[in-house]
What does this fold into?
Amino acid sequence: MENFYSVLISEWNRAMENLLQQYEIYAPIQTDETIDYEIIDADNISEAVYNIPKPTTPLKTFFLPVKENVTKPNQSEKTRIITGIPSCDLQALNILDEIYLDKEYQDSYYADKREKTILIGTSCFSIQEHCHCISYEVKPYPESVCDISLAEVGNKIHLKVFTKKGEGLINSLKKYATISKSPQIEIEEIELKQKKIENQLLENNRDLPDYKKTGELVEQAKDEIWQKYSSTCVSCGACATICPTCSCFLLVDKQGFEKVRQLDACQYPGFERVAGDEDPLHGLAKRFKNRYFCKYFWKPYKFNSITCTGCGRCIEACIGKINKNELFRELAQ
Amino acid sequence: MPDKTNIYKPIKAKLLEVITESPTIKTFVLEPEQDFSFKTGEFIELTVDGIGEAPFTPSSSPLETKKIEVTIMKTGYVTEYLHNMKPGATLGIRGPFGRGYPVEKFHDKEILVLGGGCGFAPIRSLLYNLMAVSDKLRKVTLCYGSKTPDECIYKPYVDELKNTPKFEVLRTVDEPDESWEESVGVATVLLDKVKIDIKNSIAVVCGPPVMMKFGTNKLLEMGYPEHDIYLSMEKNMSCGLGKCGHCMMGKYFVCKDGPVFTYDEIKDQPDIWS
It folds into this structure.
């Protein structure tokens, strides 16, 4: 395949080290029990781990920081390379792009960050307990959105190029490493691993309704379902904060007519409250239900992109142990 | 017009005059630092520096581009600050945002306008627009309700309307005083007094949620089709751009898809009256 390249891991690390002069690089690194995107320097470059499921933090935080002053001139940042991104996080960027790169009202801060970032996706060669991307039309390997996808097999890194931006990076890497076309047999090995994970995901999530059915199930759910599943919810908003597609925010005013875009969540009390204290989402169960309607019923009507990529972070993050897959399984019965 | 390269940055506007309309409602006359045009029913985000921002539909004529008037009831944090402001102060404006009234669809029609309380603000802007195209309209009837005679706003403008050909004004108050000579009761009581050719008419409703609800129900009873009832909805519109999510009303972002909707567009969405 003409857009498949391979490089020895040792040379890849050396090349990335050289690229540090020009780029800010992030990669998943394991610390104790956690794997998360970390900023890379010469000391930790060899600790980057690939082909693992999602890092703890969703990719959205690179483009929508928790707080950002959106009235000051854009700070010119170094171009970033974010590597080791799983497919669930990549596909989540589609809905953010639809909202923030909207032609009528483009968010120039988001657009600038998207423009100045090179995305290197990765195929998942293992899965976590709550991974269910496959049920939501997302393959466990990158098919789009990224500039390059990466797979580590044996002592090599294989790179599949998706965009011109990706091609440009391969050319930069060639200055520091020997990059050759991947042999067909190695590509087939990667595809075999991908297929194996795909089958494992299908097997693990056999009884989970697929994305196309979720809207109808949510719409028809009785109030008892929302009461039952929200009974341990404490409105902490962790589900929305950790979600790669939830992107609601509040504009906070600062002196000098400055405004700060601060991430918000419909799970917090007062999210829809207006002056005079009318509040359509006053009750906790109502806020809980709202998030499901937003994701699976209303946004799919409004946007083309999926609004849940099956990463499972909301299940892991919930201190009330609310499992949305259990909710959907019950609805599908 | 505002800088489209930064959608969050307000332009500055000088507060020229503050008009007390009622004990709780004031009109703020603003002079934006650059020409500012809007279509009637579209809204702006008004910033009190360092305090907050809130959405308001201008109450002035959409034909005026040098000055803009916003009529505001003291009802929350930002509006309390606004009510204490004096001429000469600087405010911030973003917008205009959303979808306003489709005035061209009102041509050759009788227009029934039902307003309550501070809901007269967007309606006044609409009426200015309708006055400018009155040769294309059959008739405009304004039914306006407020709590007390003191709370009736735009008194000089109402007198002007009463003397304008093709325009009729009916008013009511919940609690009359001795000098009140017009109707008594909630705004919907006025609808019983209206003589209108419903088949060739459209209705516009703007006011507090409870009035919008009962007003719409009454209009439906009178025989107005759902697609001929225009409602100006009020939600927590923070960004005004269809991004922040606060004003989501079912499948709509009120800020971008509205704030003006026909009843048939929104009747199946949740919490439309709250």
Notes: Chain B touches chain A at residues 4-10, 12, 47-54, 75-79, 92, 209, 234-236, 238-239, 241-248, 250-251, 253, 270-271, 274 (CB under 8 Å).
